[in-house]
Amino acid sequence: MSKVAVLGQRDAVLGFKASGAVAFAADDAREAREKLGKILEDDFAVLLVTEEMAEMLKEELRPLYEKPKPVVTILPDARRPRGLGMELLKKRVERAVGANILLKGEE
Question: Which comes out higher in pLDDT, residue 66 or 83?
Fold first, then answer.
């Protein structure tokens, strides 16, 4: 069975445990880097990262986007519709589909 890791602030990741994901809570960038290292040492198929944490780990995550495993997905923050998570999601959808189908009248 494929394993899923979730990295982010404690209140954001604990709910994912009910779905069988392994939650890695971090309170700051130093702790997040440490937890990311542990995740990469293990055999996780998917890594979900909260948008706030992804911004802290932007440089560390960048090379992972091109690797087949783990598949890294940023969880968009509903309070920030134009944030990093939504931008990465738009890029991936456009690359997969060939067009930006998530426009919502923005362009």
Answer: 66
